[in-house]
Amino acid sequence: MASVEFRHVTKTFGSFNAVSDVSFAIGDGEFVCLLGPSGCGKTTSLRMIAGLETPSHGQVLIGGDDVTNLHPKDRQISMVFQDYALYPHMNLADNIAYPLKVRGEPVQKRHGRAREVADVLKIGHLMDRLPSQISGGQQQRTSLARALVYPSRVYLFDEPLSNLDAKLRLEARGFLNHLQRDMGMTAVYVTHDQAEAMALATRIAVMDQGRIVQYAPPIEIYRRPATTFVANFVGNPPMNLVPVEATHGDGQLQLKADGLTLSPLPMSSGIAAALANSKSLTLGIRPEHLAIAEPGTGNAISGTLFANENMGPESLVTIERPDASRLTARIFTDDHIALTDAVTLGFSPEHIHLFDSTGARIPADREQPL
Amino acid sequence: MTAEPTTPVPKPARRFALLSNRAGAVFLTPAGLLVALFVIIPFFWVIFVSFTNRTLLGRTALNPEFVGLANYFALFDPSNFFQRGQFGFSLILTTQFVLASALIGQALLGLLLAWLIQTVPPWIKRLTETFVIAAWILPEVVIGFAWFAFLDRDQGTLNAMLTSVGLPRGDFLLQQPFWVIVVFNTWRGAAFSMMLFNSAFSSIPPSYFQAADVAGASSWQKFKDIALPLIRGHVVTDLILITMWTFNTFTPFLLTNGGPSYRTELLSIYNYRVAFRDFEFGKGAAVGVIIMLVNLAFALIYLTIGRKKRV
Amino acid sequence: MKLTFPAFAGRIAFSALAALLGAIFALPLIWFIFAPFNARAELGITVPDPWTLSNFMTVFQNNFAMQALWNSLIQSIGGVILVGAAATLAAYALSRSSIPGKGAVTYILLLFSSVVSGSAAMVPIFLIVSAMGLIDSHLAVILTFAGGLLPTAMFILRDFIDSIPKSYEESAMVAGASPVQAFFDVALPVIRPGIVVVVVWAFVNIWGSFLIPFILLRSDKLMPASVAIYSFYSEAGTPTVTLLAAYSLIYSLPVIILYLFVSWKFGFRFFGGIKA
Fold it and tell me: Is A2 helix (H, G, I), strand (E, B) or coil?
């Protein structure tokens, strides 16, 4: 296993900046997810670690060695592709053993090793089949077996679960998590599914428009999103974001928006700095921190009922505000919630997030422990 | 994130590609040589030869002289331009041939066939397709001989059928040679248009037609209002391709030899006669240049449309 | 669904029309179903009585005819090997390397290949082949066809290779394969169906061709079957119909078999789109 490092890496395709001056380090044995919407540069970053793209500027290091211009075959890495890239003309045994074949292992030995890995992944009984003769889940495991069959310094995953249906995806996700605990491998995992990233990663790098917006452990990403972009991207349903106007005086901050009742908050140095720029802030509240409340009581926000979806263990209640924006509350009850047209959602002030006019999180003077 | 100074690393000399530029160049070499030798050099050489009086035999075979535009003036000589066996006659004949056999014959018949076989029972579809495609894939000399036999004055199948319904026999290859090659080329080439339109029709989602059925449209209305507008791109492709192929075809030679008395001498056949029977390479090359100019015009139109579609 | 009467009548009319057109297309070919098996075949259609293979025996005993078939085979296979190998390498380079200007190369190739037809370029092709001292040799026909068919073959194959995910070779290289290993172990087997189609297409084109061997070859012992058949029915006063019928059928057989093979393996629409 080895560490991975990006030093000021930029990748341009023509005039398009796929990755702009990205620097980050992945420690030995870490499982890092690159998370972001399509076109954010996460796959390009992964392919630069693999050597399948060459950076336009900057350096890529594996295990402390500069591999920027090294051919993929010389990097001692493994990669699982989104489309699995199983060779249609080889049976499973030959597919899995192919990396050993190019390393010059004798056929007996490489088939034996392939069988061992395949047995762990519960595809050992399919070794004579062609990739076209097995199911999607089995294909996914075959490509995983091919990546695990030889010793590697880094394991790369390019959205490996995105072609599976929902149930299989959960199962495969659990297996990958188990594997990571077992092997302690260094892994870089590209996904656009925030739940996958939360479940698997030791650290998540959230990417947007070729840059890393936040690089932190999942819990920190969730509890202290660095920007409204991260707040909106992580969590399902995403964080509710409400534009507010701020006024302050006497060390107190007053936030105003249609239908919002919020007692004054204590000022902090961060807020003061933000207000020096603009009085327009964004208030964020996670859906699970909203609850049905009586009108006119405490801190709350009100609107008209838009949707009331009972999901079994929880209900999603969505209200619409006068400016047509919507807020969703996630209420943990298996009862149907009877609601009238006007709904008030209450919350407690320690659960609110504040972002400045550029969308950056305003840190508290003394952050609560995660 | 580290706070090192941003020292721009010089651009790497070698960018990763699945095939390096050097290997790519090696891979391209055999094909490049063959294409250069037999496609690109001929293109320029034919232009060069068309300005000389090169012949197959005799003094000018080895030392052709530069004659400027003399070959072109000879082709476009107004005193005999329209005479049979001359360039102008052949050019007009070829134009009529393309119009009648490709643009009208092949395209319309292909369209009709493609539309018909969408709806008929599978066994009729298969049978009809088999014969239409057979006419297209069989080698041209076999087809030439088949028609030679089919049109024979004394024993040919066509005359036997005409006699059986009480119509007079005819020696069509002598009496109507132009229409014979028009029908022949329509018959020979309709398969391409049929298959192209057929695949175009089957790329239209069936729900479009079902929606029209629900709305009470007739077969003609479905064809005119739904199918035709959706396959317009295919129609243009088809028309350009079959025009180019028909313009360059040499196959009628196998049926008529260009005769009788030059009445079916298409440009390709005229070119062959001038160059390889009369041995006037210079003049033949000039005909070749004109054929290539026409081809170039069509190819440019085709590639321009193709590129637009790709973007 | 119950059909209304007009719809039912319409369907009958459509079927009748389609069948009629099919019959018209069949008419000039019906002769070939009977004449090869009729020892007394003439140009008219007569049902053989009795059915016999004696015409085929005549063909097999005719040295010129058999030699011509052999020549067709040499020229077609020679051309196909050249086209297949050169087109595969070139198409792979056009699809997978980042050689500058490869888009322009493809465009120019397509343009030239459709502009320089056999009819237009017969004079310079003849002159080049004479300049190379190859007139009246198998190699002349083989090379001319290889050059002429290559642009289209490369284009078809490049499209085919473009449609194959790059992840095949990428995964091989990440797993430790060199570019050469990735090409031979992974890319080539995956491209094989495309190569088969191109090879079949090139074979059918060369096998059926008439004009090029007609102008490049002079001696009887090099003539392919296409030129032989033409000389059988055009030069001799009355064609030897029995021989011609059987011979034409034998000569057509590879084309028919390959056509059936391709339509069985790939569906014939694919084949239909590429005969040029």
Answer: coil
State the residue range of the domain holding A104.
Answer: 4-232
**C-chain residue closest to A146, CA distance:** C175
A85 φψ region: left (φ > 0), alpha (ψ -120 to 50), beta (else):
left
Interface of B with C in 267-286 (CB under 8 A): 267-268, 271-272, 275-276, 281, 284-285
A61 reaches B (C-beta below 8 A): no
The ipTM, to two decimals, is: 0.85
Tell me whether A363 touches chain B (CB under 8 Å). no
Is residue C9 located within the same domain as residue C46? yes
Angle between helices B21-35 and C138-162 (to 10 degrees): 140
Q: Is the dihedral of CA B285, B286, B287, B288 positive or negative?
A: positive
A112 located within any domain = yes
Task: Please count the residues of chain B.
Answer: 311
3-class SS string, C148-186: HHHHHHHHHHHHHHHCCCCHHHHHHHHCCCCHHHHHHHH
Instruction: Give the pLDDT score at C238.
Output: 61
pLDDT digits (tens, 9 = 90+) for B93-140: 899 999 999 889 999 999 999 888 888 888 888 888 888 888 888 898
Instruction: Note whether residue A215 is domain-resident.
Output: yes
Calculate ∠ Cα A261-A262-A263, nearest 5°.
125
Determine contact: B121 vs chain A, CB below 8 A.
Answer: no
- Domain carrying residue C89: 61-274
Q: Is residue A198 part of a domain?
A: yes
The residue among A43, A47, A79, A144 with the most chain C CBs within 10 A of its CB, best to mutate, is: A79
**Pair A13, A148 in one domain:** yes
In the listed set A213, A232, A251, which residue is the last one of a domain according to the structure? Answer: A232
pLDDT given at position A353: 92
Judgement on whether residues C42 and C126 belong to the same structural domain of the protein: no
Q: Does A75 touch chain C (CB under 8 A)?
A: yes
- The predicted-structure confidence for C228-255, as pLDDT tens digits, reads as follows 888 887 775 566 788 888 888 899 999 9
Q: What is the CA radius of gyration of chain A?
A: 25
Task: Work out the minimum CA distance from B9 to partner chain C, whole angstroms.
Answer: 23
State which residues of chain A have pLDDT below 70: none
C170 touches A: beta carbon within 8 Å: yes
B13 to chain A: nearest residue by CA? A69
What total number of domains does chain A contain? Answer: 2
All chains having 3 or more CB pairs closer than 8 angstroms to chain B: A, C
Q: Which residue among A232, A265, A294 closes a domain?
A: A232
Same domain, C264 and C239: yes
Q: Which domains does chain B have, with CATH numbers?
A: 81-279 (1.10.3720.10)
Q: Do C181 and C108 fall into the same domain?
A: yes
* Together in a domain, A210 and A301: no
Name every chain C residue with its beta carbon within 8 A of the beta carbon of B124: 15, 18-19, 22
Q: A288 and A261, same structural domain?
A: yes
Residues constituting chain A:
370
What's at A239, amino acid-wise?
M
Q: What is the dihedral of CA C228, C234, C240, C244, to 10 degrees?
A: 50
- Looking at beta carbons, which residues of chain A come within 8 Å of C175? 73, 78, 98-99, 102, 146, 150
Residues in C touching B171 (Cβ below 8 Å): none
Statement to judge: residues C47 and C109 lie in one domain: no
Say if the Cβ atoms of C112 and B39 lie within 8 Å.
Answer: yes
